[in-house]
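Sync notes, pocket subgroup
Present: LS, DG
LS reminded everyone that the earlier model was apo-only. Rerun requested with zinc ion included. Inputs:
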Amino acid sequence: MKYFSADHIYAKGELLENHAMLVDESGTIVAIGPGETLGGDTTDTVDEMYVYPGCVLLPGCINSHVHSFQVYLRGRSESSLHFQDWVTSHLYPLILSLDATSLHSAALLAYHEMILSGTTTVGEFHYVHHVPGCERGSGAHQMVQAAEALGLRIVLLRALYDRGTHPAQSRFHESPSEAIQRLEDLHAQYADHPLVSIRPAPHSLHGASGEMIEAAADFSRRHKVPMHIHLAEQESDIEYAHKHYGCGPLTALQKLGGLHEHTVLVHGCWLDQSERELLAETGGGLAYNPLTNMALGDGVTEIPDLIQRGVPISLGTDANIRLSIYDEARAVEYIQRITRKKMGILSPESREGHRLLDMATLQGGRNLGIPCGSLEVGQQADIVVLDTSDPSLQPGALEAGEALLSQIIFSMVPQTAIQHAFVGGQQILRHRTPTLFSRQELHQLILSTHPRYNSH
Ligand SMILES: [Zn+2]
C-alpha cells in the first residue's frame, strides 16, 4: 500500500485540506480521508510514504487527442497559407519521410514534454500504420512502446482509413476487414495491460468509407468502448458531407450507424444547432482542441451551448504546437471571449477553475473510457504534485479554494510548478525530471532520427 498526503487534495470538485490517500498494489485509490486518521489506521500496511507539505495533489491531465508524429512539423509549417496547404505542403511530405524509428522518437519527444506539463494519460489517435522498418499495419506499436518507456498511460485510438488518393494516404490504407482484424489483435494483445487501452477511430468522413465507419461502430458496441472520429473540423467538411451523403456531417455519421453513446467527436467546429442537439440526445462526447483549431484556422466550436446541453468535453493538443493541456484549458475560455467580445463565458459564479480543470482531467477519462481523471476511491492513482510556492501560483495559492484553481488554469507555468507525477501509483516524474528516460538521451535520439522532409 502507498500513502500520499499534501496540504490539499483536489477531489470531487473540492480542495480537501490536510487529507491523505491510500493506493493499493494495482494502482487503485482505496481510501481518502483526513491525514492523521488514514495514516494512523494503516501504519502496518503502508510500504511507501509520499508526504508533500506545501503542495497540492491534482489528478493528472488527460490529453484525449494527439497525433504525436506531428511534433516534427514544429518550426516548419507556420508559413502554410491555409489548412489544405498545411496538409499537402507539410503534413503529407512529413508522413512519406517517416520510418519506424522516427515514429517512435516523435512519440518519446511528445510524451516526455506531456509529462513535464502534468499529463498522465495520452489519447494517441494513430493513423500512420505502414512505415518502413516495421511490419505492415503495425505502426501503432511504436507509440505504445514509447509510452511504456516513459511510464505514461496510453489509450491508442487506432485509426481506420481507406479513402483518398494522395501517395501519403497509402501509408494509412487498409481494407475494413484488415483494419478490424488488426484492431481485434491489438485489443486482445493489451487486454490485461494496466496502462494500455485500445479504441477504434475511423479517421473522418473523408478518410473512412461507410463500411469502415460501420465496422468501427460495431467494434465499439461489442467491446463497449468509445469510438473517436474527426468531424466538422473545417467548413469544407460540411460541403463534403452534403455532397456525399446529402446532409450535415453528424447526420451522415448517424445514417452510417456511427453515432451512439460511445461516440466521441473530435473538433465539431461546424456543428449546427440541430446537430449539437442530436449529439447531446445520443449521449456522445467531444474531444476539443482549441489551440489547434486556432493554429489551423478551423473555426470556433460552440462550447457554451454544448456544455449547456450536457455533452462531456475533454481536451487534446492535436497538432502539437505545444503539448500542455493546461494551455488548452485556458484557450477554451479565451477563444470564447474574443469571439463574443465578453468575459466570463465559461465561468459563471467564478467556478471556471473547476469547469476547465474537469475538462482537462475528469472528462478525458470519460471520453477515453478509463477509470482516471479524478482522485476518488476506485479510480487509478494518476497524480500530479504542485508546489504552491512556485511564483506562477502566487498569490492565489495562499488563499487556496477558487483562487488557486483559477490560477492553475490561467497563470500556472506547469513545467516549473509541477514537481512530481504518478501513473497508477508509480512515479514517472521526480523533481521535474522524468524518472525513466533522460533528457540527454532524448536529445541524442531526436538528433539522429528526426526525418528531413522537403516541403512542396
Ligand atoms: Zn486530429
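DG: Residues 61-368 form a domain with the TIM Barrel fold (CATH 3.20.20.140).
LS: The longest strand covers residues 48-59.
Action: DG to write up.
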